[in-house]
Amino acid sequence: MSGYDINRVLKSLGWLVGNPSFGSLYPALHALQEDGLVTVDVDNRERKPSRKIYSITDAGTQTLRQWIDQPAGPHASTKAFVMRLILADSYSYAGLIGQLHQRRAQVAAQRTALEQTATTQDGKRGLGQQMALEYGLALANTELAWLDSALERLLKRPLATED
């Protein structure tokens, strides 16, 4: 993909992952190239500006797999989880299911903590704090429902399609 194409994909999910600027994207792509993790080819087009097309190298694929195989950590952000979802095509079938189970456990623990906060501080919060707590619980419940649905869908897939 070109830097422009990468930026467009990330901007389409901007509210989930942030909106990278070209001023941060291109230095990151150059650093990946310097580290041998991507290559760049120039696509010279007639009557249009040339485009730099970035492709992952074998070393880049290996580095990506190492990152994917690492647990996300108990306090991984939604942004980090969504970035892992964007790269789901790089996971094995079992790896993707493992990532979803890990996220489910993390969100369930967060929901439990929010529920405990709701019961222990009942009546001791201002309106804004109460609304924030309710918002957090709604997000946790919605994400858990989505995770359960995604896991159910994946677990129904025939194993013959596994990479």
Number of domain units: 2
How confident overall, as mean pLDDT?
A: 88
Largest sheet at a glance? 2 strands, antiparallel
- How many strand elements? 2
Task: Describe, in plain words, how this protein is organized in 3D.
A two-stranded antiparallel sheet has the order 1-2. Helix content is 64%, strand content 7%. It is mainly alpha-helical. The protein folds into two domains: 60 residues, Orthogonal Bundle (Arc Repressor Mutant, subunit A), CATH 1.10.10.10; 93 residues. The two termini are 23 Å apart. Helix 6 packs antiparallel against helix 7.
In summary, what is this structure?
This protein is mainly α and about 160 residues long. About 65% of the residues lie in helices and about 5% in strands.
Give the arrangement of secondary structure elements.
Blueprint: H1 3-12, H2 14-17, H3 22-34, E1 38-43, E2 51-56, H4 58-69, H5 78-86, H6 93-120, H7 127-155
Antiparallel strand pairs: 1-2
Helix pairs in contact: 6-7
